[in-house]
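> forwarded from #structure-qc
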């Protein structure tokens, strides 16, 4: 039988935790870090319990913006725990119980062998006689994030990423004290009311900000990064100070931010959204992003696309822009094949007659006869794609049904998002399917079975361009945010069903570019559209920062050369995609022979290195990209080489120094991979591990490969 006062020690060679129940049996996480990391540093206090829960009747001890210091969290007592192993996964379940209400909480920790990443979710079960009206439940709560007492808080900096349409993955940093300042003077105050809160809203999980955050020590480099692995906007994280150490609490939907409520009836269960926390003991944000990259790979659904990484041509961006026809597509198919594309995707507009406002009419996903007028209709284009050795793909917006679509009337009202009994309409004539309803799912399954099973389409770009607000109420009394959570989970189940039926089908995740950039969807779908940005100069910092949110082999970056572009600009846009997934587009048929050769060269270079991308981890020699930086750099470290893309935009000097400390002491060989005829000048300094680079003109971009034995410090 488990001793309720027993200290729990659990982990592996990359991560350890220690949970110590206090005298009353309240379990608290008192240590989380790398083995042997404690050294002589004093152990910080850990005032927070393992689980923080609020209900309509039981809130917090101390009011404020935070969702910690809860009455129920303090009352939950350690009842049992068990550790297990499943392959390379280490599992720990800690069971807590609150006898007054009958609430039981199972905290479920997962960690992959060798990875300093903790994944967590909480299962609540009502073993009492009365319904509990949940208003917030933390998926992971941990103090002890900073080490060394109050002085360490002065070196702590918060990390978060602004994420807007056309301007994704813009990482920011701010001293932790700026959001939770030291208040003590003559009298000691250890817990204030303020904390830094970042939250998402609606169906777009990453609209406004990525569902991620972090805390880094600017002196030691010790860094924590977290991600909320949820495919809806109902998420929140907070980070602040408690008893001379920083804490973080990661949540799904809650009452304070989303109006969420969930009645937990006697005998019922509720599961929180999963979250993950990654540690780099001394490697700064780069080290933590490397760990998170490996975690994403370890926890996603296996798929052959993750190894093959085919080049995709898509007819939309800076090309047909939603106006495809047979006459326009056939020359592009030939040009894409000549460039080396392996998939060809017909984007928006293929289902709408020319001159029609298709925005409010989507839903049936039948091809337009006026756009594809021949006897075989759209199949003439699909057949040409296959004849040229490529796999055909199509764009879909599966959750959207236009108000003027026949589907808006033929599907039952309950198959759509509703609030107060009214069907939600948003975005200028759009309804939103609720995938909990069998009719909504049956409709989408029939569409996919026709396009994939009958037509032979091998790629679906799944987009979503409207936000229907806080959620849906399927029945009276259901909070819209609770309905949204149900839909979000049904969406994941639907995606799993598609891939169970069609295991070779490639799915791209898109929502006005990167407005749904989250690990829940990317653990199912194979590619992520990183942006809708049309300016090649503005795309550079987005492309460079994309591996913070998505593995390199899943990050689709547009490469869209235009007839009016200079050769430097053609090389610039192509270089942006070489360390990710090439989404080739642009008016290839109108390019000059020299420009077309630069495109073909870039695709060939990408194919020569793409087998290494699924094993690479990212780093940023010039720091995380700034939106206005003249110089931007992204490095991918593989087992055999370091690949480095560097962009120079107009402004600034022609020279840059790129620190690569993992290669310090190595007699590294520097190769210019692309463009072969460029003007880049490089010089390697092995003693310092610095690469001197000159790009004499701007805009300019270059892809380099460095090989050589790294130092023992790597």
């Amino acid at each position: 039988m488990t001793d309720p006062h027993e200290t729990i020690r659990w982990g592996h060679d990359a991560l350890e935790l220690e949970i110590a129940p206090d005298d009353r049996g309240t379990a608290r996480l008192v240590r989380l870090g790398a083995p042997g990391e404690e050294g002589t540093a004093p152990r910080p206090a850990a005032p927070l319990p393992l689980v923080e829960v609020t209900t309509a009747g039981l809130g917090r001890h101390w009011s404020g913006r935070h969702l910690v210091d809860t009455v129920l969290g303090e009352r939950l007592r350690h009842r049992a725990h068990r550790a297990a192993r499943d392959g390379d996964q280490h599992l720990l379940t800690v069971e807590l119980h609150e006898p007054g209400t009958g609430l039981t909480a199972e905290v479920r920790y997962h960690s992959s062998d060798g990875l300093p990443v903790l994944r967590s979710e909480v299962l609540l079960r009502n073993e009492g006689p009365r319904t509990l009206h949940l208003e917030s439940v933390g998926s992971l709560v941990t103090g002890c994030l900073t080490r060394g007492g109050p002085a360490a808080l002065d070196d702590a900096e918060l990390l978060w990423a602004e994420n807007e349409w056309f301007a994704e993955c813009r990482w920011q940093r701010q001293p932790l004290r700026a959001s939770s300042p030291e208040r003590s003077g003559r009298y000691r105050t250890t817990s204030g009311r303020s904390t830094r809160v970042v939250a998402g809203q609606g169906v777009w999980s990453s609209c406004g900000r990525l569902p991620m955050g972090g805390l880094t020590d600017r002196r030691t480099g010790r860094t924590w990064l977290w991600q909320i692995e949820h495919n809806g906007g109902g998420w929140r994280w907070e980070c602040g100070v408690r008893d001379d150490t920083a804490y973080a609490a990661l949540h799904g939907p809650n009452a304070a931010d989303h109006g969420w409520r969930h009645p937990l009836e006697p005998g019922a269960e509720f599961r929180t959204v999963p979250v993950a926390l990654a540690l780099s003991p001394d490697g700064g944000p780069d080290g933590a992003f490397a760990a998170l990259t490996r975690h994403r790979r370890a926890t996603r659904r296996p798929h052959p696309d993750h190894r093959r990484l085919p080049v995709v041509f898509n007819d939309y961006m800076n090309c047909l822009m939603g106006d495809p026809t047979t006459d326009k597509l056939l020359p592009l198919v030939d040009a894409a094949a000549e460039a080396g594309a392996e998939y060809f995707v017909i984007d928006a507009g293929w289902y709408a007659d020319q001159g029609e406002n298709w925005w409010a009419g989507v839903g049936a996903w039948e091809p337009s006869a006026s756009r594809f007028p021949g006897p075989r209709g759209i199949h003439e284009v699909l057949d040409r794609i296959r004849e040229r050795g490529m796999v055909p793909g199509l764009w879909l917006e599966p959750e959207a049904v236009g108000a003027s679509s026949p589907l808006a009337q033929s599907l039952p009202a309950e198959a759509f998002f509703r609030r107060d009994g009214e069907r939600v309409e948003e975005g200028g004539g759009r309804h939103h399917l609720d995938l909990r309803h069998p009719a909504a799912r049956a409709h989408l399954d029939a569409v996919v079975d026709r396009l994939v099973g009958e037509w032979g389409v091998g790629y679906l770009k799944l987009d979503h361009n409207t936000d229907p607000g806080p959620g849906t109420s399927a029945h009276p009394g259901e909070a819209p945010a609770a309905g949204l959570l149900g839909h979000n989970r049904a969406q994941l189940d639907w995606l799993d069903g598609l891939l169970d039926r069609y295991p070779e089908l490639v799915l791209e995740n898109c929502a006005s570019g990167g407005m749904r950039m989250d690990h829940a969807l990317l653990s199912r779908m194979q590619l992520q559209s990183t942006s809708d940005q049309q300016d090649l100069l503005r795309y550079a910092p987005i492309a460079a920062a994309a591996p913070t949110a998505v593995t390199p082999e899943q990050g689709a970056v547009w490469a869209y050369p235009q007839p009016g572009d200079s050769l430097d600009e053609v090389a610039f846009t192509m270089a942006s995609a070489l360390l990710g997934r090439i989404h080739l587009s642009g008016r290839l048929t109108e390019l000059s022979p020299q420009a077309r050769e630069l495109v073909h060269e870039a695709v060939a270079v990408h194919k020569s290195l793409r087998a290494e991308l699924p094993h690479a981890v990212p780093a940023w020699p010039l720091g995380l990209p700034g939106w206005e930086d003249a110089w931007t750099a992204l490095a991918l470290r593989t087992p055999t080489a370091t690949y480095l893309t560097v962009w120079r935009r107009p402004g600034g000097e022609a020279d840059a120094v790129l620190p690569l400390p993992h290669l310090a002491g190595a007699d590294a060989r520097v190769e210019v991979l692309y463009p072969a005829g460029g003007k880049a000048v490089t010089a390697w300094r092995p003693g310092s591990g610095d690469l001197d680079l000159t790009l004499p003109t701007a805009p300019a971009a270059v892809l380099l490969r460095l090989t050589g034995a790294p130092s023992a410090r790597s």
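QC bot note: Residues 310-529 form a domain with the TIM Barrel fold (CATH 3.20.20.70). DSSP finds 16 helices and 40 strands in the chain.
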